[in-house]
Design brief:
Distance between the termini: 6 Å
Low-confidence stretches: none
Oligomer: single chain
Strand order of the largest sheet: 3-8-7-4-5-6
CATH class of the largest domain: Alpha Beta
Radius of gyration: 21 Å
Structural class: alpha/beta
Order of helices and strands: EHEEHEHEHEHEHEEHEHEH
Strand content: 15-25%
Mean pLDDT: 93
Length: 249
């Protein structure tokens, strides 16, 4: 197994010093660099209007992230649209639903959350409201499986692209000499390829979080050595630790 000394984590540095990465650095003598390979930027009003969508034509919004919430209310404000108090919100998780309190007066009768972080969990609430008109906030990089799932249950959902993911250019003065690279999104995989089109993986270990990220990495020609989540490794830090312990090879 390759000796791991230097690891690139393609996410922002944790906000506090007490985190799993710091603990692994101290225990295994490895060094972690935190460098985002992608960033998210919102569509402006002009770009959004090309989709010919008026958010107020819909009675409900489907949200899969806090980021989606921010850009939904931002665009409505920039278009000078007053979101009505009667709007319903269908959220992928309780954490996303709770974040709505930043923008609305939270009431359970207007905010519905998925119990197990699956949009399928929202179907009972949606089926009780057959007259609802749904708008789903999305990134330019998305999977249509969710829209198709709703369609299979005869629920029409209009996708609305409100933000995009773009590659972050790697500073040419920064060395790229990592023993392990940790990737979290398909866009991160694309950014890696864009920044280093001639890079050969060799014995560099690649760790991926999420099935879509793993698939994107393999389609890009990379060998994925560490995958999460799995039953043994629900999080990517657990998977990295198991690899450093020699349980994954």
């Amino acid at each position: 197994m390759k000796k791991i000394e230097k690891i690139l984590v393609s996410q922002p540095r944790p906000a506090t010093e007490r985190n799993p990465y710091s603990e692994m650095a101290a225990h295994y003598g490895v060094h972690f660099d935190f460098h985002q390979l992608i960033r998210v930027e919102g569509l402006d009003v002009h770009e959004f209007r090309h989709q010919r969508i008026n958010p107020l034509d819909y009675t409900a919004v489907i949200l899969n992230s806090r980021l989606g919430i921010d850009h939904y209310f931002r665009l409505c404000e920039e278009m000078r649209l007053q979101v009505p108090d009667t709007m319903h919100y269908y959220c992928i998780s309780e954490a996303v639903g709770n974040y709505l309190q930043k923008y609305i007066q939270y009431r359970k009768r207007k905010v519905f959350t998925a119990e197990h972080n699956r949009f399928e969990d929202l179907l009972p609430a949606m089926n009780r409201r057959p007259q609802e008109k749904y708008l789903m906030v999305m990134s330019d990089v998305h999977n249509d499986d969710v829209i198709n799932m709703f369609a299979s249950h005869k629920i029409e959902v209009k996708p609305a692209i409100m933000y995009r993911t773009v590659s972050v250019e790697w500073d040419k003065h920064m060395p790229f000499d990592y023993d392990m690279i940790v990737l979290f999104t398909p866009s991160g995989v694309q950014s890696l390829r864009k920044n280093f089109p001639d890079w050969e993986q060799g014995d560099t270990v690649i760790a991926c979080f999420g099935q879509n990220t793993t698939q994107a990495a393999e389609e890009a020609g990379f060998r994925v050595d560490i995958k999460a989540p799995t039953p043994e490794c629900p999080g990517i830090t657990t998977a990295i630790q198991r690899y450093l312990d020699g349980h994954i090879s």
